[in-house]
Amino acid sequence: MDQAEPVRTPASWVVVGLDNGGTCNNATVLDATGQYLVDHLVENPSLVTDGPELAVEQLAEAFTNILELTRTPLTLVRAVGLDTPGPASATGVISSKGATNFNQKSWHGFDIRGALEARIGLPVFYNNDANAAALYAHHQHFGADAMRRSSVAAIVGTGLGGGVVENGRVVAGAAGMAGELGHVQIPLHGVLEPDQPIPLCNCGFEGDVESIASLTGIKNNLLPYWLSKFPDHPLAAEPISVAAKKLRGYGENEDPLALAVFGQQARAIGKLFTIAANFTDPHAYLLGGGVVEAAPKFRQWVLNTIRESTALRDEQSAAATFALVADLDMAGARGAAVAALEGVQQRRSTDGR
């Protein structure tokens, strides 16, 4: 973090966004006029592997640090937005079986939102990390029209996360687990080769989107198959986990094996978006993840392939856009802040204040 960078002091009351990850927390401040007070990562260690007590204290420290950095008085803060990896309930209770970064028994069923709220004495609004990123992507894409638009976002990383946003708000679902797009099972016709095994996901499903469109899907399913077709490829000499991480660089150089793999991923996401088109008919289909950081020509090829693989009616094609998610490293904290801002505004409207 560059302490010398200029920071804006808030023009109004504010909310704080906290993005909790496996190694770091990232924090931001959003004022009521819609201005973020920092334009870079502001991180501290999350210490989630040390258990809930220390992890909540680190979140409180991230909160204090970002107020000091932005010269924001505590009295101006109306609420905090928090996101963590799921699965967790809509109110921020970690799954009773644990979650991605919360595998210790002390985390199972732990109310991380309530614990942080009690610690800092302010309302805390919760989303899972993929939904928070999807929410930020939606607002960044639509700007002033965000509250009148809908979107579906697929965030491709180690797994495949995402979110569904309707009229500017995340669709959370009854148990808080809506928008688990990675585990939507898709038709595989037109995605796999005739002799290709059906991909298996770590969740136990066969042929869901994450089993194909994720780094884990590349490592476990796609790359082993395609290396059998390209036995002399340089990546055949690498451990599969190393080869999977190097594959994007080959894709940027139009390597045939890499394009075969990423083409399958793009077509799988296209199948997912086709399902979304018939469920929610969104205004935008958004793509985030490592591909956004790739060379422009390659990432545009991926997005074009997704668009071509999404079966839309003529009326839908005229109304919808396909776009890449920007600022992905800050998307979680910013999306958490957007959710908190909306929550405060909704409460003020309900209370008549």
TrEMBL record:
Family membership noted in the UniProt record: Belongs to the ROK (NagC/XylR) family.
Superkingdom of origin organism: Bacteria
Protein name as annotated: Glucokinase
Pfam family, any one: ROK
Gene3D superfamilies, sorted: 3.30.420.40
